What does this fold into?
Amino acid sequence: MRSPPIPADERERLKRLYCLRILDTLAEERFDRYTRMAQRLFQVPIALVSIVDADRQWFKSRQGLTASETPREVSFCGYTILDDEVFVIEDAKNDSRFDDNPLVTGPPNIRFYAGCPVPAGQGSALGTICVIDTKPRTFSEADRRLLMDLGEMVAGELVTTEMAMLDELTGVSSRHSFLALATKSFEDAKRQRSRLTLAYLDIDRFKDINDTLGHAVGDLALRETATILQSSFRSSDIIGRVGGDEFCVVLAGANGENARSVVEVVHRRLRDRNREEARPYELSCSVGLAEYDPIRHHSFGELLEQGDAEMYRAKHDCLALVRESASAPT
It folds into this structure.
């Protein structure tokens, strides 16, 4: 038996998956209708919507199967997510990748498998919709197109879920999804004894922009800031809008010095944008950094509180410098 290869973008794929918060949720009719449809259309005993986690495949919807998950290393779906085409095994007993697989040699005694990858945004698929039989079968080109159609419908449901987890204005994670994803990253760092740093950012004088120039201009300032954050931090970093004019970024594997280097890039790009754009306001932000300390931080909430406090300290110091400069004799 061969375990399925890991996609090149696995870290980003899992980040998108965990942001959805779909794992281990209850069955939903919006997914069950597609597995029932697949079971009926292809006349198979088993149909699944499978979500591929780091070390397991978990079934969001299942027909004809009692198990709620199986190890990823024995999964057929782990192969399906590697491509954007339907993956078909007409007889698992005649395929060296699967002929001694425990799902083939024992229950549910898979002989035939056809799976369609189900993406959510860019990158490798998050899971599949698949049909399974206990006897060998052929799968025509028309069958493949039909399964692809069902896959697109399931993908639409995941996209709907994903959009609910994003901040509608800026496109970064909403506060709710950011906290869920950041907490998981914190727990991973705690368990693995690895580095993690939080950057807490607040747009300077944002209330003045809103009050003086209107909410449309304020919305533009938020979108510009989010765009600069997304282009400055790594794709694996977790970026969220956690308040009206506040953003947070979790940098897994990074220390405070690493984070400060990226924050300097953010400041520089904000200054560059101010010079390039003819507008009646300037964008800048105050930033607080909090580096994970296993002795001091027992929860992500404690790390978040420190980042918030450091951000307000930075904002206070900046205002003090502005007042000092304004009162200095010319």
Observations:
- The chain has two domains: 10-164, 175-327.
- The two ends are 79 Å apart (CA to CA).
- The longest helix spans residues 300-327.
- Residues 12 and 236 are 6 Å apart (CA to CA).
